[in-house]
Amino acid sequence: MKALFWRDMRLALRSGGGFGLGLAFYFMLALLFPFAVGSDPEVLRRVGPGVLWVGALLSTLLTLDRLFALDNEDGALDMLLTAPIPTEGLVLAKASAHWVTNGLPLCLLGPTLGLFFQIPLALSGWLLAALLIGTPALSMIGAFGASLTLSVKRGGLLLMLLVLPLYLPTLIFGAEVVRRASEGAAIGPALALLSGVSLAVWAVMPFVTASVLRASAK
Amino acid sequence: MMPDLGKYAFDVLVAYGLSLGILAVLVVLVVARGRRATRDLALYEQGRKR
Amino acid sequence: MSLWEYANPQKFMRLSGILLPWVWTGAMAALSLGLIWGFFFTPDDFRMGSTVKIIYVHVPAALMAINAWLMMLLASLIWLVRRHHVSALAAKAAAPIGLAMTVIALATGAIWGKPMWGAYWAWDPRLTSFLILFVFYLGYIALWQAIDDKDLAADLTSILCLVGSVFALLSRYAVQFWSQGLHQGATFSVDAEENIADVFWLPAVISMAGFVLLFVALVLVNTRSEVQLRRLVALKRWDRIAEEAA
User: Fold this and answer.
1) pTM
2) Residues 136..175 of C with a Cβ closer than 8 Å to A: which?
3) CA-CA distance, A80 to A87, in Å (whole number)?
4) What is the pLDDT of residues A196-209, one digit of tens each?
5) Are C223 and C16 in contact, with CB atoms under 8 Å apart?
6) Contact predicate C14/C227, CB 8 Å
7) Where are the domains of chain A?
């Protein structure tokens, strides 16, 4: 399982592996937004955290469709499914590798991009925390979506349609953490709900995704 | 015959019109699909028997 | 005779064929009675004026939008556990009807809200939840279309329906959590619907019955189509294989 994890990491970081795609998109989004909504710091500060959350979501989506599809195309997936590791382990390895190469860099970039939105430092801290807790859920839910669309040619659009509504709870709770922090309101509930969703997703989704992979392989 | 709908007449009529319209289109589409499926299957099964 | 016997396609076709005329008649009767009574013979609400009449289409449609998804969930579970093809096809058949109900609920909800909110859309938790349900329906239908192997499609869409149901529930709660921060008073739809229900109860119930029967009729017809189309595809494949073997 560890070998699989490192293999996926290496594949993602290789040129053409899509590593920079998510980050570049995230940067471009944050760069373009102030031009679109005007440079008034009040406005930017209000929409900033939300924009950065949505950006993280969309950036994650960009790199998801290759999660299983590439291995499926060259037959590697079939071999992996018959290997001695449980399918759930396969899912865990792939989702983890995806988070480390996509989610984690987004988390680190996000607060920096917060500068474009004049987000104060304390708030950036909460944004970082929320992203760190929430983005793993995005990778795992994304893995589920990717498994559903793995045999669909050009399934990117379908993947987006399936996965975006599943992202809503994470998005809502994650953005609420930052929003409530900016108002000085209690962030405990939002943080707890965000963590709960991420934990539950990582506990349950590997089994569901594994059954999808097994069904697709028959 | 038409009740006095007052100032909301347009809203209420559009709401009813849209709802009944969508339902009517839905019924037509579903029933037409049913007829087509029955006909296609019957034609093919007839063709096989020959 | 166990209910499961009707999972047999031939038995299903026979039974649904017998039931359909009755269901159609009941649906048309209840819809006409409920809507005509509600539209022409009920008074206006002192707060909302004649827009209260919209409940006779909005509430039943919203109810069916949810119930259609619940029926799909049950049918998906039956497919996953007992592998009855009729069940999988019934779920597939119900989806477009549920989608239409969701659209009606959204449209009438927005129109009803306009006199109250001054705009055609507001991020009211109820309306927002229905918008999310709309996207779930789209995804489910799209997944059926996208997968060529229909047995695999049945498996994947059933799993999607299950996962979607959990997330839909979670989203409903999340949306309420999210709208708490908007400093709105009691949301419009909850308030209004609870206050109206008592006074204009009977035509509303009859209308709801009409929508339920209409849903059943449409699902039966659409499932019959799916069963027939599936048989047609199977026959063609069988004949093609026989031809190639000859």
Assistant:
1) 0.92
2) 136, 138-139, 142-143, 146-147, 152, 155-156, 159-160, 162-164, 167-168, 170-171, 174-175
3) 8
4) 999 999 999 999 99
5) yes
6) no
7) 2-7+17-217
